[in-house]
Recover the amino acids of this structure.
């Protein structure tokens, strides 16, 4: 449905050429929800704006449906108003000189040929009903709350049933509580209209909860893409591991290799554990062992079973539904999410029970380059 | 010009945060209250003192008497004489309307196109254009008006001479600056920079997503311009339109310099000639009677302006993380756009500047190689040997500097009082200081003249009178500092109080340092306004209080062309450094490009 191939976008600035997007490729199948996730400045919004036609790519190709909408090498560029897309802007961009209904009806009013007035009205009201705003159709756009603006913006984006729906951080202007609520609402709406959707966000929980596919972006490139669960469980590199959810990093050395797994010796005399090893890593090499805080249950006595890392409790913080425990492994701090019933006192010895299936190993990188 | 501030004001009030107003009386202390009381009284005096005198004078007669002179009495004669004169309805009112509507249209067309090119398109050298447009803003209107005569006078004007040589026409014409069209063009082009500033602020503050949303919704750029850009900008366009009307309405220089030889009278010159008739005593009462509706009109326009500004603010919706607006690609319109900008610069800055310097060395003669040998520095030599010139230089700086200082100082106290205390009557202070924006300069001059002629001590004719008369422009300072003060959360002051700082200490150590950028901006603006001022010193002129602008006019009028041009050249030279000060402090364009 949407195909982006080797997309590039660079800007001339007084300080020289800036490459915002350096070769991004992905494909969104018909009806699916695709998310570009990344920190600010990673190029995700620029990618989205190129798809919308608000920015001209400097390289690569964009295909919507069967139409090539951008191909700078062949001088093809279809401007935004000739692309059949709907978009919700980060600021919502609700026109202040129109009321709610006029805002939503606009994409139909400017369409050529213009549909009959009754049809425009019916379809706009239908779109407003979908977002639960039909009662406020006559309200002035300047008198809407943030959540209401967001709904109007959504109704406006889908009113002409576009081929593609683009959402540019639509939740980032809302306060925390409303954001939670609108996230579910948006998810439900998108499912109901069943339009192919490209979503841009910097919020990992939004991305994981809503998408069929997630692409984690960093510095103008896609670092990893895939289904949310697989990206979360098997992060391809430390950037993805650190950006998507919490991650613990331990330095270790490989002491043994048996096929796809091996045994590593964790720094700080913390013990030996067996973990899966990527093919490229050899015996004797320095590695980084990564696991999630929720995959780090504690034992307060070694059970001799193996696969435990010795640590000492540094701090416990009770957070209601769970207790977060900071532990010291050698000089490194790792976090563990525990059931709130677990009690321990700072300084106590503890053993982190590692499940090899929930661990990922990377070759060690330069010190000081850790995310978070 | 005095309204320039509002462009910055418009943007700053955006981020308005609720500020906890009001504090307990005890905190401010005796000294504090004395400061507040003194500033309030001074502000009320500077604005209402002259105005009260003006209104009173309209109802006192006989007309050649000062209102409280021996023998004056209450009367309606002034109003009767003025408003039963058919010339008022047949010439003055229509002239004023044609002049105002015509010049505002010229101004708007040119200024909007320039602002749009600079703010929203990929026009090359946008920053240079921005600075170049500012240049005529700072040059006194009287200088610009006189340069128009150098360029377009029927016999000697350069453009006419050139056209005649080119087309083999007769001895005069073909163009004549001394006509309504001439007045409209001179005034219209002169006001472009001011309106340009306001419009570019409005264009800049518009959320570009609004246009993008329309684009994505399927509207072409042209449709988007008509259906989204213009309607969203409408309040932001109407407000500058009203201000431009107000400023044009009070214009005195162009009607005096160009309109008088053309025998075209408008309200502003009518008032002046009632005060300075050819062969009669000054008709104070009549002048005041003419001024009354003029004043009311000005104030009504001001309220319209205020209403529109508020509406413009209600149009501000949530903005995202400020994308650099996508600039319109000019494409093949690039060349025509650059020609347009160049032609504007030619007529608004380059030709006037050049003709001025030339005329100061060669008089009226048309530039050619033959006349180069007739160069004469007489104009400058006469000037430098004339003690009145040095007096005028001194006076210009003293008056502009001290009135700017007085108004800024009072303005900051007023702004603080209005925002941070619950002082009874603070809304009156707010209202009166805002009112000062709507007072036509001619009326400010006339009113000050009436007031200071009537006071029993001999202050009239001194430089001090000019300082006092200039100081009515309270709104410039209060509006600027108020907007800045709104950004400073009251808690910053409360933190100082809690830390043990007394009121005066808090003001000195916390408020003033934080406000410093807007105080500097306010001072620079007021200084420029004072430096350009012609109307007030013209009305209040006497032997010792001449300023440069008035001196240029007097030299020009008495036929000393070279000397007049020399004064004009010196004024321009003095103005050039101010442009850079202004760009630095007043128009710091955040994140431009």
């Amino acid at each position: 449905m949407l195909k982006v191939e080797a997309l590039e976008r660079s800007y001339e600035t007084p300080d020289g050429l800036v490459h915002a997007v350096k070769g991004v490729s992905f494909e969104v199948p018909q009806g699916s929800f695709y998310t570009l996730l990344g920190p600010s400045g990673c190029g995700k919004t620029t990618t989205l704006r190129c798809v919308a036609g608000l920015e001209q790519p400097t390289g690569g190709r964009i295909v919507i449906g069967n139409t090539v909408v951008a191909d700078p090498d062949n001088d093809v560029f279809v401007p935004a108003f000739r692309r059949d897309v709907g978009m919700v802007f980060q600021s919502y961009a609700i026109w202040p000189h129109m009321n709610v209904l006029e805002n939503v009806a606009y994409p139909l009013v400017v369409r050529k040929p213009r549909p009959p007035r009754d049809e425009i009205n019916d379809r706009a009201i239908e779109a407003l009903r979908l977002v639960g705003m039909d009662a406020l159709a006559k309200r002035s756009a300047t008198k809407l709350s943030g959540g209401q603006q967001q709904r109007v913006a959504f109704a406006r984006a889908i009113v002409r049933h576009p081929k593609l729906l683009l959402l540019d951080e639509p939740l980032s202007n809302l306060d925390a509580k409303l954001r939670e609520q609108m996230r579910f609402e948006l998810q439900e709406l998108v499912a109901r209209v069943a339009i192919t959707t490209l979503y841009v966000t910097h919020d990992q929980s939004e991305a994981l909860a809503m998408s069929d596919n997630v692409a984690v972006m960093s510095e103008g490139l896609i670092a990893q893409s895939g289904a949310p669960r697989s990206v979360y469980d098997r992060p391809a590199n430390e950037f993805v591991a650190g950006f998507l959810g919490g991650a613990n990093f331990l330095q270790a050395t490989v002491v043994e290799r048996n096929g796809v797994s091996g045994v590593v010796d964790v720094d700080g005399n913390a013990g030996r554990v067996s973990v899966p090893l990527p093919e490229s890593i050899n015996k004797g090499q320095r590695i980084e062992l990564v696991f999630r805080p929720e995959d780090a249950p504690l034992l307060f006595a070694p059970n001799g079973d193996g696969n435990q890392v010795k640590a000492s409790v540094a701090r416990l913080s009770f957070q209601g539904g769970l207790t977060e425990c900071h532990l010291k492994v050698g000089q490194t701090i790792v976090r563990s999410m525990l059931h709130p019933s677990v009690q321990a006192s700072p300084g106590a010895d503890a053993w982190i029970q590692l499940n090899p299936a929930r661990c990922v190993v990377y070759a060690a990188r330069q010190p000081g380059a850790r995310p978070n | 010009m005095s309204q320039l501030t509002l462009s910055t004001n418009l943007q700053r009030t955006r981020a308005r945060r609720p500020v906890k107003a009001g504090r307990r009386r005890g905190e401010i202390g005796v000294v504090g209250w004395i400061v507040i009381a003194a500033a309030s009284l001074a502000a009320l005096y500077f604005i209402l003192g002259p105005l009260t005198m003006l209104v009173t004078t309209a109802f006192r007669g006989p007309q050649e008497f000062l209102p409280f002179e021996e023998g004056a009495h209450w009367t309606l004669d002034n109003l009767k004489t003025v408003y039963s004169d058919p010339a008022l309805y047949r010439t003055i009112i229509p002239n004023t309307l044609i002049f105002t509507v015509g010049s505002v249209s010229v101004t708007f067309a040119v200024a909007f196109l320039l602002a749009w090119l600079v703010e929203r398109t990929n026009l090359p050298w946008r920053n240079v254009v921005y600075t170049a447009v500012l240049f005529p803003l700072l040059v006194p209107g009287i200088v610009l008006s006189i340069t128009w005569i150098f360029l377009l006078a029927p016999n000697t004007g350069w453009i006419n001479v050139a056209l005649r040589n080119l087309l083999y026409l007769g001895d005069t014409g073909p163009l004549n600056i001394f006509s309504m069209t001439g007045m409209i063009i001179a005034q219209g082009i002169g006001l472009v920079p001011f309106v340009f500033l306001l419009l570019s602020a409005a264009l800049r503050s518009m959320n570009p997503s609004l246009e993008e949303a329309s684009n994505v919704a399927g509207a072409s750029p042209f449709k988007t311009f008509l259906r989204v850009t213009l309607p969203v900008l409408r309040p932001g366009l109407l407000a500058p339109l009203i201000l431009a009307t107000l400023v044009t309405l009070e214009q005195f220089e162009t009607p005096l310099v160009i309109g008088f030889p053309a025998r075209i009278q408008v309200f502003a010159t009518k008032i002046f000639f009632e005060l300075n008739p050819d062969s009669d005593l000054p008709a104070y009462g009549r002048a005041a009677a003419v001024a009354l509706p003029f004043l009311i009109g000005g104030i009504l326009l001001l309220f319209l302006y205020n209403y529109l500004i508020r509406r413009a603010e209600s149009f501000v919706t949530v903005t995202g993380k400020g994308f650099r607006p996508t600039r319109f690609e000019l494409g093949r319109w690039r060349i025509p756009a650059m020609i347009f900008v160049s032609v504007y610069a030619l007529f608004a800055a380059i030709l006037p500047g050049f003709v001025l310097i030339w005329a100061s060395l060669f008089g009226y003669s048309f530039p050619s190689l033959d006349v180069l040998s007739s160069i004469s520095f007489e104009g400058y030599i006469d000037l430098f040997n004339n003690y009145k010139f040095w007096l005028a230089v001194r006076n210009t700086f003293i008056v502009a500097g001290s009135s700017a200082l007085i108004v800024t100082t009072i303005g900051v106290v007023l702004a603080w009082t209005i925002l941070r205390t619950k002082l009874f009557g603070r809304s009156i202070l707010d209202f009166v200081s805002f009112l000062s924006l709507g007072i036509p300069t001619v009326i400010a001059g006339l009113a000050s003249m009436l007031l200071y002629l009537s006071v029993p001590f001999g202050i009239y004719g001194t430089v001090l009178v000019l300082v006092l008369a200039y100081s009515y422009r309270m709104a410039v300072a209060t509006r600027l500092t108020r907007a800045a003060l709104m950004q400073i959360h009251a808690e910053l002051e409360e933190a100082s109080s809690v830390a043990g700082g007394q009121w005066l200490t808090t003001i000195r150590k916390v408020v003033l340092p934080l406000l410093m950028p807007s105080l500097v901006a306010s001072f620079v603006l007021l200084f420029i306004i004072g430096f350009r001022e012609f109307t007030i010193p013209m009305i209040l002129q006497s032997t010792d209080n001449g300023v440069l602008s008035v001196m240029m006019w007097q030299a020009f009028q008495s036929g000393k062309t070279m000397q007049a041009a020399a004064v004009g050249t010196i004024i321009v030279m003095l103005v050039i450094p101010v442009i850079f000060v202004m760009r630095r402090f007043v128009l710091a364009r955040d994140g431009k490009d």
Notes: Residues 86-120 of chain B form the longest helix (35 residues). The radius of gyration of chain B is 25 Å. The mean pLDDT of chain B is 80. Chain B has two domains: 1-13+31-48+371-593, 90-266+337-360.
